[in-house]
Amino acid sequence: MKTEFFKTIYESALKETQITPKKDTPYYKLAGEILEMALAYRDDGITFLNSGDRVNAHAAFCYGFGWLDFGIGSGLINGNIPKCRIPVFSEDMPKHLTDHLSEKTTRYFRMLTEACDSVESSPDKESPLHSFTEKIYALSMDSVFLGDAYLKKDEKVNALAHFSYGYGWLDAAVRAGLFKITDKRELFTV
């Protein structure tokens, strides 16, 4: 799949969403912030794409989808998450963006790994939110492992997709208060 087509899927998913909690509640405000982040990263991705920066566009769409899917998965936003959100992307980044892709992919690998090491679950073990945080943490770590596997095959477009998507989920969960930051606060958008 090409980044441009993934953008179309992302835009379509955003159009189908709506906030589920009642207005004037903390969860409504939280859902609004999550949707706002998903929309902002869509807009950033389009701006990057229009300027020829396909690397940052690709990362923005995948990261934003992580935020959106967190909102859907948490029940704060209506929508559907397919069994496999991150497809296999074609490794067709223009040659002049090779160094940029390598730098960004390596940096996101480091950042997601450090982010996973910098949080701990907030909800009590008896809370239904505790098992949800465990799933989010597992998804984020799976994103590290899948991205690393692609990186070892020199498939940086796919590696960056997994690092960005997993990071979006984890960052949104931190914003939602499901994880507390134990180190490197600068890695999160709180």
Automatic annotation (TrEMBL):
Signal peptide: none
Cited InterPro entries: AF1782-like_sf, DUF357
Domain of life: Archaea
Gene3D superfamilies: AF1782-like (1.20.1270.90)
Domain DUF357, chain residue ranges per copy: 9-76, 107-179
Protein name: DUF357 domain-containing protein
SUPFAM superfamilies: AF1782-like
